[in-house]
Amino acid sequence: MVTTSLALTTSVAAVIKDGVAVPVATAGDTVEVILAETPFYAESGGQDADTGEIRGANATLHVIDVQKPVADVIVHTVTVTEGEVAAGDQVSAEVDRVNRHQASKAHSATHLIHAALHETLGTDANQAGSYNKPGYMRLDFSWRNPVTAMAREEIEGIANRAIREELPVSTNVMNLDEAKNLGAMALFGEKYGDRVRVVEIGGPFSRELCAGTHVANSSQIGLLTVTSEGSVGSGARRIEALVGADAFSHLAAERSIVAELTSTLKARPEEPERPHRRTAHAPVRRGEATRPVPPAGDAAGGGPTGGDRNRGQRGAPGGARVGDRGRRRRPAHARDGRPHPPWRREARGGRGIGRGRWPSPGGHRDQRSRP
Ligand SMILES: [Zn+2]
Fold first, then answer.
1. Predicted confidence band at 107 (pLDDT cuts at 50, 70, 90)?
2. Where is the composition biased (Basic and acidic residues) (predicted)?
3. Could you tell me the distance, in angstroms and rounded to a whole number, from the CA of residue 234 to the centre of ligand 1?
4. Strand pairing category for 7-17 and 30-35
5. Which pLDDT tens digit goes with each residue over 108-150?
6. Cα 77 to ligand 1 centre (Å)
7. Where in the chain is the domain with CATH 3.30.980.10?
């Protein structure tokens, strides 16, 4: 049985070594342990397993992996660091809270990237697999065309804007039909019961069927940086990103490289001219408005404020949220310059991002993608 608590007192139901139940395991052994109740999250839904410790009167166990081979059976792979543990022992089981929080950040970041993909490319960019662990996420999606550098920047920009906008995260259990009516993104190929868990980030901005763990507010993710995007097979692409402190470390390392290169080349580390970004929808350089700035007090306006140079930032109360296309021009590159389909025009009326329809069959979202 799984609980929502991160620590609890329970008992050892079984100790398994090399696939066989054994009465006892001793220091130095790596064994599998089943508990009567567990606070540990087993790897599922693309999210890596919890780590932590199990302590008994006579033993300390370090939990290195948690799997759910069949429904309702959770198996902890542990190393016995001291003492010995036996079936029937009373133990305290405690999840590594920092690790769990970092994992939750990465999982929530995966949902933001998925929402940003729909926003940028459209709902045909269906998630086909995902994997996330502390500091890292990847998401595979169905898409036949190359994704331009500009689209990649936009995906990253939308996800980071969602982080800055401090969107609340909520989970609700509801009937499957109710979730479909809300436009929650589901995984075809996954079997769902009548009751499903829907995770929302910023209401309709991101609404997915998901059993994973999440932050309470998007701002807790801190920062996200896309590190790669490319083809992983016919009609399939993968986007990878670092999250939180790992994202910062990556950007800081890149800054060091740029400093070194500019020193070697005796060049000035200025932002280069990037004529391809000088389009109506693209972010522009400091001091330039992304579009004509309406008169003060116009809630539909809200030009750049503070140090935030991205388009569509929040302005006056009632101004745009992440998903408000009314304040952003659609990128022509995303859909080859074709006119916006009807659902996109609908979305201007306040619907969520990419919620025009239930995804088409064939996807396998929220399952661990192949490495
Ligand atoms: Zn999820």
1. very high
2. 333-349
3. 24
4. antiparallel
5. 999 999 999 999 999 899 899 999 999 999 999 999 999 999 9
6. 24
7. 101-271+321-347
CA nearest neighbour of 45 among 234, 185, 247: 185
Reading the block at residue 361, the tokens are 């069959």
The CA 47 to ligand 1 mean position distance, Å, reads 8
| d(CA 245, ligand 1 centre) in Å | 21
DSSP state of 276: G
107 CA to centre of ligand 1 in angstroms = 6
pLDDT digits (tens, 9 = 90+) for 57-90: 999 999 999 999 998 899 999 999 999 999 999 9
Please give the model's pTM, rounded to 2 decimal places: 0.73
Q: What is the residue type of 304? A: P
Question: pLDDT of 285-299, one tens digit each?
Answer: 333 333 333 344 333
Given this structure, which CATH class describes domain 101-271+321-347? alpha beta
Q: How far is the CA of 184 from the centre of ligand 1 (A)?
A: 11
Helix (H, G, I), strand (E, B) or coil at 162: helix
Residue 211 C-alpha to ligand 1 middle, in angstroms?
6
Structure tokens of 249? Answer: 């470390």
Whole-number Å distance, alpha carbon 86 to ligand 1 midpoint, is: 36
How big is the CA angle at 181 (ends 180 and 183), to the nearest 5 degrees? 65
